[in-house]
Amino acid sequence: MDDSRAPRSARRQWRLRGANLTGVGAVTVSLLAILSGVGASAVAPHDPVEQDIINRLTPPAFLEGGSTRNLLGTDHLGRDVLSRLIYGARVAVLVGVTTVLFSGSLGLIIGLIAGYFGGIADTLLMRLLDVQLSMPFMLLSLAIIGVLGPSLSNIVIVLAITGWVVYARVIRAEILSLRTREFVIASRALGGSTVRTILRHLLPNVVPFVIVIATLEVGRVMLLESALSFLGLGVRPPTPSWGAMLAEGRIYVGTAWWLATFPGLAILVTVLSLNIVGDWLRDLLDPELEV
């Protein structure tokens, strides 16, 4: 019995160690992206909008004809690609974090109300959720941005409006389970107010779910922002954006592959790292989850 359990325990420890190493690596990459975006003005080697037509389409420093002055080369207007990538991270981080704060707060409030009170409030809010889910994201984005115009604030509005449903559905389901637990019933029996019961007993139990969803949603929002910018519905030029850089670079794929490759890699690595961080946090915050 002991001999059979030992290999399983050893394998489980190796899986845990591998998951932790992967999680730490993903956290490191995510923090680098966030910090580079926040401190872009201090980190970027050049002005991201400064044009140098003479040195346009200069290859990266590791290729023939490249220069150490522009480590990742220049674009069709002679702008430094590395500097634009760093400033593009600022846009991605700003949109991702701001959108998650708004949509997460709205979804948390709606989920708490629907799950705790039930009845008509639950029915109305869930029908609103169904209506939201029935609207195609791209069609809604085109409608809102077409009326308000492309800008950073309008992108946040669009993504926040379409992102709250994920939080609301998960939080509602968890509250429906928690409201019949003994500690909630005891709080009501002892005369605890509705606000106190929600804030003191229910909210702390759903915070881990909100954290995990928010981490995953930041990556999703960054991806959607890049998609909107790729279509020309994002921030206005010449503000750097990974999606806009990818759209500009696709024209020069045959002659200057680095213009589309580096923004694409930035999107891929950052979103992948944030998804891994979300999975890692889920494992850490849910002690009942089997690894």
Structure description:
It is a single chain. With 291 residues, the chain is mainly alpha-helical. It has one domain: Orthogonal Bundle (MetI-like fold). It contains 10 helices and no strands. It has helices at residues 2-38, 40-43, 81-117, 119-134, 137-148, 152-178, 182-189, 194-230, 242-249, 258-285. Helix 1 (2-38) crosses helix 3 (81-117), helix 6 (152-178) packs antiparallel against helix 8 (194-230) and helix 8 (194-230) packs antiparallel against helix 10. The longest helix is centred in the first third of the chain and has 37 residues, at 2-38. The protein is elongated. The two termini are 21 Å apart. The mean pLDDT is 84.
Topology:
Blueprint (H helix, E strand, L loop, with lengths): L1 H37 L1 H4 L37 H37 L1 H16 L2 H12 L3 H27 L3 H8 L4 H37 L11 H8 L8 H28 L6
Helix pairs in contact: 1-3, 1-10, 3-4, 3-6, 3-8, 4-6, 5-6, 6-8, 7-8, 8-9, 8-10, 9-10
* Broad shape: elongated
| Series of secondary-structure elements, N-terminal to C-terminal | HHHHHHHHHH
CATH class descriptor: Mainly Alpha
Q: What's the number of structural domains?
A: 1
Search tags:
MetI-like fold; 291 residues; single chain; elongated
